[in-house]
């Protein structure tokens, strides 16, 4: 920890000033007006459901611009942002290096549907600095990357069944919109209308952090399992940290059963470090998927594996997968510019230190006040959980009634200029653009808001 940083966050959190209570609501008229309009055009007024503010107070803020760690809404309110477009913006909003590279490349046209040197450049940046992939394929979203990885695993192994974990999100592909049925090991039940039951039958859903469950699944479906898919560190349903030992167990049981281990690193890739969660644990997944950060804010996904496994993808092999805009030059440019910054020496160390001190200082305050709050964090990802459990490692460990507290917290934070994802199941992200000054401001706003949350209980 840098000394100066330590000083910034030190002090007895128990002595922090108590807020005078709930803050009056900021003006949200323009956003509300835009939302009314949007409802005429889009189901729920949005193009992705979590944006609709269904589990918090009020209606969505319409964002006008972002710069560094700040966003501004249509009413001109300024916020310190911890959503970061749900993870991609590890350098903050509108980073000059990313913006300049994108504008430069755009001058030459935006898509050709033919190879460009920029694809090679981004691939080289990734493959040279990542021991988990030898060959890759770019897609235009994380969902597509995961969908393709699943198809590849099935094509490669000649088996059909997939094991996934309750509490992991892998995008909205049919075979993964499946939740656990009753019983330890069961076929999944679809978690969305429109997913055929027969698809769900190919997906087995088990709890995280449970060796018996995975063992039983492999016994029950002996010789049928193509792959086990897990989020590097599950971060879409709270932050469900797994023990290294458990992940190594998964790696071994997959090997024993000739099933592939797929690491969905769409959030954790390039976030925990350049090589994501695989390097964090020291395991070697067979297929890895990336998204979010890899595109610097533009739509990019990717899946990769050994050259041998990737040899099964068309046109080399029989597993078909394609994309009109895959690897398009503008998105590649953003990825190149962003990943180049991440490779600077000390980048992750500085970011992760800053983020962990931020998280821990909030925790110290909550502990000093006996608030039932845990700030789980890893790298620059944090999750505010209203719980007194020391560990939350599976979806079942989360108390749904705690989300009422999150609702109050979210409103108080917006009214104090802090923007976080509008659901208590979502994690927050610290970016390189959050300076110590802004983190200190954000911390104070969070502490004041917690006082309100716990006095209104
Ligand atoms: C966001 C996410 C996806 C889906 O990516 P999209 O780009 O939204 O399609 C898949 N897996 C994980 C782990 C994610 O966090």
Radius of gyration: 22 Å
Per CATH, the architecture of the largest domain is 3-Layer(aba) Sandwich
Overall shape: globular
Helix content: 25-40%
CATH T-level topology of the largest domain? Aspartate Aminotransferase, domain 2
Low-confidence stretches: 1-15
The CATH first-level class of the largest domain comes to Alpha Beta
Percent strand = 5-15%
Query: Strand order of the main beta sheet, please?
Result: 4-13-12-11-10-5-9-7
Supply the number of helical segments. 14
Find the count of extended strands (DSSP E, 2+ residues): 17
Mean pLDDT: 94
End-to-end gap: 36 Å
Which structural category do the helix and sheet elements fall into? alpha/beta
Ligand species = pyridoxal-5'-phosphate
By CATH's scheme, which homologous superfamily of the largest domain applies?
Type I PLP-dependent aspartate aminotransferase-like (Major domain)
* Major β-sheet profile: 8 strands, mixed
Work out the count of structural domains.
2
Detail the topology: elements first, then pairings.
Blueprint: H1 3-9, H2 29-41, E1 63-67, E2 70-73, E3 78-81, H3 96-106, H4 117-128, E4 135-139, H5 142-157, E5 161-165, E6 178-179, E7 186-187, E8 189-190, H6 197-200, E9 203-206, H7 211-220, E10 225-231, H8 244-256, E11 260-264, H9 276-281, E12 287-290, E13 301-305, H10 307-310, H11 329-342, H12 347-368, E14 374-378, E15 381-385, H13 403-415, E16 418-419, E17 428-429, H14 436-455
Helix pairs in contact: 3-11, 4-11, 7-8, 12-14, 13-14
The structure holds pyridoxal-5'-phosphate (PLP).
């Amino acid at each position: 920890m840098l000394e100066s940083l330590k000083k910034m966050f030190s002090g007895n959190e128990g002595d922090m000033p108590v807020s005078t209570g709930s803050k009056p609501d900021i003006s949200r008229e323009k956003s509300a007006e835009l939302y009314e309009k949007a409802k005429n055009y889009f189901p729920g007024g949005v193009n992705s459901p979590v944006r609709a503010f269904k589990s918090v107070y009020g209606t969505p803020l319409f964002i006008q611009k972002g710069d560094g760690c700040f966003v501004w809404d249509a009413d001109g309110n300024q916020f310190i942002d911890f959503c970061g477009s749900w993870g991609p913006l590890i350098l903050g909003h509108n980073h000059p290096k990313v913006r300049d590279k994108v504008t430069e490349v755009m001058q030459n046209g935006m898509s050709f549907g033919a190879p460009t040197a920029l694809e090679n450049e981004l691939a080289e940046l990734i493959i040279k600095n990542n021991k988990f992939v030898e060959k890759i394929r770019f897609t235009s979203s994380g969902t597509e990357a995961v969908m393709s990885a699943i198809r590849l695993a099935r094509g490669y192994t000649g088996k059909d069944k997939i094991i996934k974990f309750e509490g992991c999100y892998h995008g909205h592909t049919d075979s993964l919109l499946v939740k656990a049925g009753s019983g330890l090991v069961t076929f999944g039940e679809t978690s969305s209308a429109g997913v055929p039951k027969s698809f769900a039958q190919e997906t087995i859903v088990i709890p995280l952090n449970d060796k018996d469950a995975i063992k039983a699944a492999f016994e029950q479906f002996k010789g049928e399992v193509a792959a086990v898919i897990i989020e590097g560190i599950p971060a879409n349903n709270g932050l469900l940290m797994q023990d290294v030992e458990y992940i190594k167990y998964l790696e071994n049981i997959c090997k024993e059963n000739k099933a592939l281990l797929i690491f969905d690193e769409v959030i954790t890739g390039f976030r925990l470090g350049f090589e994501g969660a695989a390097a964090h644990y020291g395991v070697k997944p067979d297929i890895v998927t990336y998204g979010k950060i890899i595109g610097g804010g533009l739509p990019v996904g990717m899946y990769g594996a050994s050259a041998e496994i990737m040899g099964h993808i068309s046109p080399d092999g029989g597993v078909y997968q394609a994309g009109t805009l895959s690897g398009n030059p503008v998105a590649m440019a953003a990825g190149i510019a962003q990943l180049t910054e991440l490779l600077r020496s000390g980048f992750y160390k500085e970011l992760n230190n800053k983020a962990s001190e931020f998280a821990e200082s909030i925790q110290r305050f909550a502990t000093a006040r006996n608030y039932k709050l845990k700030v789980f964090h890893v790298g620059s990802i944090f999750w505010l959980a209203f719980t007194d459990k020391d560990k939350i490692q599976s979806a079942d460990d989360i108390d749904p009634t705690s989300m009422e507290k999150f609702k109050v917290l979210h409103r108080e934070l917006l009214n104090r200029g802090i923007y976080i994802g509008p659901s208590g199941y979502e994690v927050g992200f610290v970016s390189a653009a959050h300076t110590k000054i802004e983190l200190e401001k954000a911390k104070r706003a969070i502490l004041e808001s917690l006082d309100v949350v716990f006095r209104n209980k």
